[in-house]
Design goal:
By secondary structure, this protein is of the alpha/beta class. The protein has one domain: HUPs (Rossmann fold, 3-Layer(aba) Sandwich). It is built from seven helices and five strands. α2 runs antiparallel to α3. The radius of gyration is 15 Å and the shape is globular.
Amino acid sequence: MSEIILVLTEDTLTSADVEHITALHPDDDVRYHVLVPADTEHNLLVSLVDHLSLGELREALDAVLRREPAPQRAHSTAADQLEASIAAFTLAGTPVDGVVVSDDPLPALRAAVADHDVREVVVVTVPHALEDTFHTDWASRARDELKVPVLHLYSGTSQLG
């Protein structure tokens, strides 16, 4: 029976992301399970600082004006991101499945670790200036709560978070 690698991502995984993740387990009998949160809530200050630190002025304005996605739109967006991420793993010839989870993915991670033979968790995000600095990001929270290794990669790169 294959061990499971949980992959938590806030956006669509690229082929480069999949390549970096699968390179961690080149000859192992593993299956990937992708979790994509339906992001319906944003912390205003965190979103503003994140967008400004990445030079995303329009997104920073949207954060200030509280243009958050409606729950149905957020779920639809997450479903599209999940489908494309699963396609990227499938194209790489890797066994994969996945699910859209709630805005806070930690309960879904806890449940998956409790219910399955999870080997590790890989979190893929863009840099988050405040959350990464103060260790309140998903990867840091998962490390604190779960009894499995947690790796944090920045989307589109092999850079560790």
